[in-house]
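User
Here is a favour to ask of a fellow structure person. I am asking you to supply a protein in sequence and structure-token form. Please set it down just below, with no commentary around it:

Assistant
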Amino acid sequence: MLEHVKSAAPLKLGYLPTHRWGVFGVDEAMRQKEKIANKLRELGVDYLGLDWLNEYGLLYNPADAEAVAGCFAIEGIEAVFVAHCDFGTELAVGRVCKALGKPILLWGPRDEAPAPDVARERDTQCGLFATSKLLRRLGLPFTYIVNCRLEDKTFARGLENFLRAVNVARCVRGARIGQIGTRPTPFTSTMCNESELLERFAIELTPIALSDITEQIVARLDSEEVTGEAEAIRARVDTSEVAEDGLRRVASMKLVMKDWIVRNKLDAAAIQCWPAFSKLTGLCPCFVNGELTDMGVPIACETDVNGAVTAIALQAAARGDSAVFFADLTIRHPEDDNAELLWHCGPFPLSLAHPESSPRIAGHYMQADRLPAVGMWRLKDGDITIGRFGSDNGEYRFFVGHAETCDGPVTPGNYVWVKVGNWPLWEERLIYGPYIHHVAGVYGKLAPALYEGLKYLGIEPELVEPTEDQVRAYLRGQQEL
């Protein structure tokens, strides 16, 4: 990935172990604190605790909240893990969380069986109810892992999902999206509200004219770096159908786009890939779009800014495990009523190509002059999360579903056939929602991470398969997806 891309960057957690002073013993709280810290280290979580705060490393005094919030802010904490080492002190926790305004994970370890003649040592679950109520009163969204043992799969699953959710929130909020040209005139579906995106989600558009991109491509055509990039492309994919001049233009476009992205620290871009771009440059940008997406900066076709937001969210949920791809919902499977074709002209990342395919680039097969270059390969097999961010009349929603790849007819460009449990239901939801024919996909079952992450953005999730009830049961450890 490019150096500035946040999706795969480490995420630092503020570890907030809390104790109820004077009611429960501090020694047992410290023991729980250390057990939880050891588990965080075992799971590879980067965190900052409270060992600097007092001799116990525990938050129990509300007067310490300001110092804790200040330290966490200075250290760049991006989320807070509130761990009830016993009943805890909800007022202190609430003050810290309110001051920081970061995503919150609430959890406490399940108590051991009480002894018949000894006072209980923790009453953790009881304190969790108190803290959750205060967080709600303060208007703070939070994620909860059901009261369980530290060794239970439910804890590790919930923590990992929370970190993915935090990544979604931090990558979408404040995203900077490049806009190359206006939308194609016929594509009313890709309209977006730039001012609302900025006001509600701090998403900033960075526009550039098609003519500026064209000038830069032409200016670099004869450079040695273009020669090197053309050779690098030739080494990775079959270029035999593209003339040398066309390949050099493709290479020059890739370098120009990459430099523009890095210079402006863009998280994604939306490009008017036709018709004006082709007329000005003699290029189809599809293959280059896939190359840049593979570098961690998703490129959405047809100046679909909301599509670019979708891709940012899915890439963040994956935390760098997989590149995303930007596709059209095109046709139903000719034989399977629950399967659909995800396709586009040729902008899917090469890293996602099926191992048995022979990736090649070619002139655009839908154009008379067959301008270079589009990718020609099927995507690999696996589970895929499909998403779409959209709005109507100021209402923002995010469609999410899980699919699995399946066999289907070969078609030009980039494609993958996917099977779901109930395609007519998907189609109905998409038709009636604020969505269009563009979606983003990413490998893995990431609906739970998106479900939690959207909570921190104030965007309504619309889960189809799995349903919201199924996702919540999964996070409770009561169901697999």
